[in-house]
Amino acid sequence: MELPEECWESIFSFLEHHRYFEPLSLVCKRFLSITNHLRRSLTITDPTLESLPHLLLRFPNLTTIAFRDFHGNLDSVLSLISQSGLPLTSLDVSCHKCFPLLGLKCLASKIRILTELNCSNIGSLKDSDLIEIGNCFPSLEAVDISYPDHGCGFSPNGSLDSKSFSGLVTDYGILGLASSLRRLRKIDLSGNTFITDQALVSLSSNCMFLTEIGIRDCDFITQNGIALAIRKTGNLKSIFMNGIGIPSIDVCFLDSFSYARSLCELDLSNSFISDELLCLVAEANLPLNKLVLSRCFCFTFDGIYFLLSKYPFLAYLDLEGANFLNDESIIELAKFFGNLTFINLSLCSKLTNSTLFNLMGNCPLLTIINMERTNLGVEAFPAEIVVNPRVKSLHLGWNNNLNDECMKMASYVCPNLEVLDVTYCSGITEEGILEVLKSCVQIRCLEISRCQGVNNLELDFELPKLEVLQAEGLAINDEALASIGKRCGRLSRLNLEGCLNVTARGVEGVIVNCKALKEMNLRWCNNVSVDIVAWMVLSRPSLRKITLPCGSVPTANQRNFFLRHGCLVCQG
């Protein structure tokens, strides 16, 4: 008896990402239809443009669309999307030269249920654009207008003239946006350097449901303004800022945390904070589960110890750059790490192997550990080594003393490791990397770029789940590359930038065997001829992006040919 369609949909829904739908869609027409209807997100790039009308028909339930590496006419594409009848709720048009005002107006005439809009890093964003966003999409709940790219806007003497000022985001634009978006819950204003405290007043007065505010690098927002926003925004759950404490911390800012009854996430990166501030946050008895003090100064072990003692249920902790921390102090703090799932201790230069393996042994829920630019590889391992199957990601780059012995121990302690980043770790050789790969069969992302000790990486065993390999600047040759192609059937992204020993023969081995390959970077692989690119695109239809060796420039006809086959070919 055949299973009903609803059962298959429930089964397929357990897949982590829509990329896993592709092999299922090839099984039969029924599975193709089911996976098409389950697809919820689409990323539009230059190669996608030609087939976009077909894709919009093929996936009728898309709710999220994002533009990446797209250099076409954004307005015309948004107009096309507006005619699709999609139940679109999330749109990302970030990192484009011009704000697509006409396209968004066209989209709004057909689709007004949009709840998320990302316009970060977009060119020429101004007050009138924000007012139009509010008018077009009154149901928006999340808006990102961070770090607009205004290019030149200054007069020769360095001052901002009135004409340029009219082309920036100011308090007036934020007021217009806030007045229209009564359901707004999240907004990121970071990098809008000409907004002031009045912008926060407008948001806290008009947006009663506001739960998250981002105000990094907003030079004219003061501690008074932040304190007022915290006091007036009763539902505030998350706030991220930087530069606090220059030149000092205001009393009103210190006192504001006693009013932040709902605050769950606090980010004070790159600030001059004090133990007094940490103690006040601790005594505020907040429902805090995420704390970011990355690259902060002027606080001590006593301050962070007192704060953590009050928040034993913290799940996310970032202490990057806290140079006073050593192995002994981490052992003390680890008493409060029972619920941590993420920790960042990068740039804590006194931390050694002892900290890494004590964290794994004493933090049963920990899944992600960042310890880049520390002192890993120094000191002996703890006497008691505990296996932690929860750890999925280790980011250990730029540790020159990290060695094969440490890699072997990590592979033993973290048998379910999925992501390993040891970029620029010169003490590691292929022996240590191969030991990890043999022991950790769940590895899906391996970053070993610029590991000078890795001279080759020939595989004689399968890596069934490896999807991303960053191998920039390694001395691997064609034989090693061919073995990677044969053993890594699910490889989708391969970075070979600066691998000088690789030739067309090695590239062919990957193209023939890696049927899911989407991106390949061959920059500075000057022994690979550009003549092979057309064969690569035709032989591997899954390819979406190829970066050519330096000096290789495709002609306009070649570029169009590649785009027609769905692949963006970039100059190296």
How would you describe this protein?
The chain is of the alpha/beta class. It has a 21-stranded parallel β-sheet. Strand 9, helix 13 and strand 10 form a beta-alpha-beta unit. Helix 13 runs parallel beside helix 14, helix 15 runs parallel beside helix 16 and helix 17 runs parallel beside helix 18. The radius of gyration is 26 Å and the shape is globular.
Which short descriptors sum up this protein?
alpha/beta, 21-stranded parallel β-sheet, LRR_dom_sf, about 575 residues, F-box_dom, 21 strands
The end-to-end span amounts to: 55 Å
Q: Which stretches are low in confidence, meaning pLDDT under 50 for 5 or more residues running?
A: 152-158
Shape: globular
Largest sheet: 21 strands, parallel
Name the helicity range.
25-40%
Class computed from helices, strands and strand pairing: alpha/beta
What do the pLDDT scores average to?
92
Total beta-strand segments: 21
* Structural Rg: 26 Å
Q: Helix segment count?
A: 22
Beta-strand residue percentage: 5-15%
Question: In summary, what is this structure?
Answer:
The chain is α/β, with parallel strands linked by helices and 572 residues long. The model is unreliable at 152-158 (pLDDT under 50). One of its GO terms (cellular component) is SCF ubiquitin ligase complex.
Compile the SSE list and pairings.
Layout: H1 5-12, H2 21-25, H3 29-38, E1 41-44, H4 52-58, E2 64-67, H5 74-82, E3 90-92, H6 101-110, E4 116-118, H7 127-136, E5 142-144, H8 162-165, H9 171-180, E6 186-188, H10 197-206, E7 212-214, H11 223-232, E8 238-240, H12 251-256, E9 265-267, H13 275-283, E10 290-292, H14 301-310, E11 316-318, H15 327-333, E12 342-344, H16 353-362, E13 368-370, E14 393-395, H17 404-413, E15 419-421, H18 430-439, E16 445-447, E17 468-470, H19 478-487, E18 493-495, H20 504-513, E19 519-521, H21 533-539, E20 545-547, H22 556-564, E21 568-570
Parallel strand pairs: 1-2, 2-3, 3-4, 4-5, 5-6, 6-7, 7-8, 8-9, 9-10, 10-11, 11-12, 12-13, 13-14, 14-15, 15-16, 16-17, 17-18, 18-19, 19-20, 20-21
Helix pairs in contact: 1-3, 5-6, 6-7, 7-9, 9-10, 10-11, 13-14, 15-16, 17-18, 19-20
